[in-house]
What we know:
By secondary structure, the chain is mostly helical.
Amino acid sequence: xxxxxxxxxxxxxxxxxxxxxxxxxxxxxxxxxxxxxxxxxxxxxxxxxxxxxxxxxxxxxxxxxxxxxxxxxxxxxxxxxxxxxxxxxxxxxxxxxxxxxxxxxxxxxxxxxxxxxxxxxxxxxxxxxxxxxxxxxxxxxxxxxxxxxxxxxxxxxxxxxxxxxxxxxxxxxxxxxxxxxxxxxxxxxxxxxxxxxxxxxxxxxxxxxxxxxxxxxxxxxxxxxxxxxxxxxxxxxxxxxxxxxxxxxxxxxxxxxxx
Length: 259
């Protein structure tokens, strides 16, 4: 076990101990303001067994993960190519960038009323809002990745008459990959942040639905359970993305060394 892991574990243990002392032993924090570990465990047992807010915990998690995954995948499939294109082509940047600069400052949550108006209260409206939240970081970082490439390398490829597909596969994508994955991490974080807000309106199941129902019921323990579930799901997806990033960058490094 590394020292970093040990320090992290000790920090979490200290936080849990402090939580127990302040809420259960000393009573400094009232249960109405912040739940005790026992209250949180009771809420977890309820939502895992009998269910809460139209579903059990597993159903809520699967619903939220599905929405985040779909919105994130669509955002990556559209944002990364667009960012690469804008970074590579001055003409594309001149045409697209003014429109992008107009919609970029709009908060993702501001799209919720229009999404509901266009698509109703179903999943498509939530996916649209998540897509926009994840779309912007993926475009910006993909664009920056291309612009940070060594211009000498690009000019050399042009002089040698490198086919465009070969150039994209062996130069453009490997060189821009670090910034692309930075954008993907930001996009994933934005997806989870936006999901919770999107599910506050018109959702039958999902972790956002749990948080909304618990807030209306004045149920702090359930609110904390929903928050912890969002944290764990977001962390696991971030870890999976980190594994994919290491493999991709290692493959790119090996390919560049071999070339």
